[in-house]
Structure formats: structure tokens, C-alpha cells
Amino acid sequence: MSVNRTMMQYFEWYLPNDGLWWKRCAAKAENLNGIGITDVWLPPAYKGTSQEDVGYGVYDLYDLGEFDQKGTVRTKYGTKEEYLEAIRAFHEVGIRVFADIVLNHRMGADEAEDVIAVSDSAEDRTQQVDGEHKVRVWSRFTFPGRQGKYSSFIWNHSHFTGTDYDDLSNEQGMIYRFAGKQWRKDTDPEKGNYDYLMGMNVDMSNPDVRREIRTWLLWYIRETGIDGLRLDAVKHISFEFYKNLLREVRAELGKDIPAVGEYWNADLGRLRFYLDSVDREMSLFDVSLHYNFFNASQAGGEYDLRKIFDNTLVREVPDYAVTFVDNHDTQYGQSLQSFVADWFKPIAYAMILLRESGIPCVFYSDYYGNPVQDRPLVPNLGKMVKIRRGYAYGDQEDYFDDPHIVGWVRRGVKDHPESGLAVVISNTGDGEKRMCVGRQHAGLTFRDAMENCPDPVVIDAEGWGVFRTRGGDVSVWVHEAGFEYLVVTE
């Protein structure tokens, strides 16, 4: 029996620095399996610039909370052994683990080096501002706490393309490109060239670097048993690099390692170009859809819901789309802040969880709430994940014939006897849709699993019913025989 896949991003930006996260992950594995989560994306597990680091200020990829470096043995999330135990706990209940892979940059070097560099404009990296001059940069990574265990590779300035800070002048605001180096052209064209993002920019054209990263990734997969990869900041990294790396690693392991890339651009054309450039060796998060959700949540009743899937990956390249509503970068206070308004989140989650295309990714803070930022959990989110696993199968028919009240049906399949559903959404007032769920459901009683509309709907002999919803909300109508299955316990 095939089961719909559903990912959860199991972290957010504002978690406490108490070293207990991996233990919390292990403790929740069974519950997540119970609601229908099949994959979890865990935060970066390696040592960052400090114990407070969320994981993106990468210092040592080989230190998973094992060595006394940067003033700590554990990471923000715990120790290496606790990380491995969390992965085992997820595997025991059949959940795949996706690791967050951050390769673009390094930070927190152990020693500085004097290097000849030129200055490029931070706003247009194709524009050189001045000629060669000496800069002092923190570029030598010796990892004294690890003392060569797992890898003896020492990083120095030759392994990087540039940085944004000169320790001699204490100047910032320029990008210092090391003499003899060029930004890779196969990156995003924003800022003229978006090879450089932050910290010490890893030179993916250096053969020693490519070899070391390949060696590390193979070690990491074998050491931890992870099942898949979430690839950070791919628009800043040579497109050719990832295409080749993924092919080589999969060939060496003799198995498929699924990968999803974060290419943060709302332009569908850029996302499609990237997929083609890497020969579709990975999927991408559907950033275009996220911004459609955000804009719809801000516009309220002025938004035309018939256009919600326009110019999105999930519509145009559905087999390579990982859909999401929000993530750690879109939270309030973060660099990509674009948090979908609370009222619209149940609607947005219905649109990624209960349709046939794309792999949906549920955000941790939406499922559990976020007390640090006083954000509520999304009502009925766990129930919608359960509905996806039990009901969201079969042919889909859309009823997107009104700008403010839209719906769709899934007609069900024999492998899931009670499957089939009807979804109705409104971004204005109360409304209804007459929709056909199929003759196989004739005479059955459907109820609103969101409990917004109390009156049942009995399907007529031709498979039709009139399904309602209240204003600014979503109703999900399913066969009433399965209602006990939809109880969610934490």
C-alpha cells in the first residue's frame, strides 16, 4: 500500500541553547510517525562558531558535538552520540532523516593570513572597486581540538575565493576577492554575481576542496546513517558542483540519496533554470508558492484565490517541488522575513497537504507553536497531516471557478478504503461548493474534519455534494467512518 510522503522541518531559529534538542527529537519520533510524518529535516549538526550557533555559521563539518572546540563539546542541540540516537529513534519508526548540508562558507577560523586581494562592490560583484592590496583574513582552519581525527585536511586562504572583512583596516562593506580568484559564473545573477554570501567563501573550483567535500559527505552519510540531504544556499554555489557531487556520492554508495535544495528566489524561471542546470539531480523548495501564500495572507479578500498556484514549481514541475508555508528563515526577525499571516495558515497547509502534487514540508513552529515569539500553533495542522496519510488519494478535480471561494476533491483509491475528500476554502465570507467526489461514495455521509461546519453532507447517487466553509477559513470533508482515526495526541 502506497503512503503519501510528508516532511517536517523539525527545528526553528529560536530554540533554547540547552543541549537537549536531539533528546527531544528522539522522544517525539513515535508521535510524528503516528500523525503521518514520513521524513524529518533536522538542523545542521556540526560545530559552529559558538554553542549558540543555529548551525549555519559552520566551523568544523567533522565535529558533530564530539570535540572541545569553540568553547564547547556539544553543539546547541547536544552531543554526537545524542544525534546518532535521535536518528536511530526515527529509523525505528520508519521515518527518514534529512540532514542540513551547509557547504557555501566557513566561519570562526583558528588563524589569520595576509593575502593579496582586490575589492569588489558588495552590491555589484562584477564591479571591481580598487586594485590589488594586502588584507588580513581569518582563513586558516586547523581544528586543534579534533587533532586530525576523521580528516587531516587544513583549510587556508587558497581554498577560499574571498571574504567581507579585512582585519588590517577593520573595514567592511566591500567584498575582498583573493588575487587570482574569480567568482563562479554559474550562480544566481543577483548582485551581478551571488557566489559570495558570507564568511570565508569556499572555492568550489579548487580540486582539493571538491575532493575533501566529497570525502566528508561520504563519511557523514556512513557515520550517521542519514537518508537524505537538505542543501543550503544552493544559488550561491556553482551549479556544476552540486550536479557532479550528487552523482559521485550516489555512485559511490550504490544507492539513491534524495536531496532538496534551497534556492531562495521567487522567480519560477530561475528555479526552473537551476533544475535544468543540475540535470534535476535534486528537488527544490517551492519559494514561489511560499510568496503566493504570503501575498494572499496580506491581501485578504482582495486576493484572487484562482491564481494561488500561478508561476509555482508545484504546478509547472510538480515532481521536483517540495512545498512549504514557512521556515526558520521566514520567521519574524530573520533575513528573509515573510511569515504567512496566522489566519491564512490553515488554508495554505490544506493547499500543500491535501493535493496530489509536490512533497509538503510542515514547519516545526506551525505544528507546536512558538512561545518565544508568541506565535500560536496552526489549528488542526496535525489532523491535516493525518488526513493526508489516510484520505488524500485518487484523482483530483479542481473547482477554482470563483476568486474567493475555491475547492477541490480527491476521489480516493481502493488501497485506502475510506479515502477521498472535499476541500472548500474562502478568503472572504461563508460559502459553499457543489463538487463531485465520485459515484463510489454515493450514499455516504461526509463531515467537516476541521469542525467548522457541523451539518453533515450526504453524497447523492451521482457522487455530488454541496460542501460548505466559513469565511476566511478551510473545511475538509471526509467520510465520517474514519473520524476516530483523526484524533491527534501530543
Number of domains: 3
List the strand order in the largest sheet.
Answer: 1-2-5-12-13-14-15-16
**Overall number of strands:** 24
Beta-strand residue percentage: 15-25%
The chain-level structural class is alpha/beta
Highest-level CATH class of the largest domain: Alpha Beta
CATH topology name of the largest domain, in short, is: TIM Barrel
Low-confidence stretches: none
Distance between the termini: 26 Å
Instruction: Give the overall average pLDDT.
Output: 96
Q: What global shape is seen? A: elongated
If you had to describe this structure to a student in words, what would you say it looks like?
The chain has 490 residues and is an alpha/beta fold. The chain has three domains: 281 residues, Glycosidases (TIM Barrel); 101 residues, Elongation Factor Tu (Ef-tu), domain 3; 91 residues, Immunoglobulin-like (Sandwich), CATH 2.60.40.1180. The chain has an eight-stranded parallel beta barrel with strand order 1-2-5-12-13-14-15-16. A six-stranded antiparallel β-sheet has the order 6-11-9-10-7-8, with no helix packed on it. α1 runs parallel beside α2, α3 packs across α4 and α8 runs parallel beside α10. The protein starts with 6 loop residues before the first strand and ends in an 11-residue tail after the last strand. The mean pLDDT is 96.
Explain the layout of strands and helices.
Elements: E1 7-9, H1 21-35, E2 39-42, E3 47-48, E4 58-60, H2 80-92, E5 96-101, E6 105-106, E7 111-121, E8 128-140, E9 160-163, E10 174-178, E11 200-202, H3 207-224, E12 228-231, H4 239-253, E13 259-261, H5 268-277, E14 283-285, H6 287-299, H7 313-316, E15 321-324, H8 345-353, E16 359-363, H9 364-368, H10 381-390, E17 396-399, E18 405-410, E19 421-426, E20 431-436, E21 445-448, E22 457-458, E23 464-469, E24 474-479
Parallel strand pairs: 1-2, 1-16, 2-5, 5-12, 12-13, 13-14, 14-15, 15-16
Antiparallel strand pairs: 3-4, 6-11, 7-8, 7-10, 9-10, 9-11, 17-18, 18-19, 19-24, 20-23, 21-22, 21-24
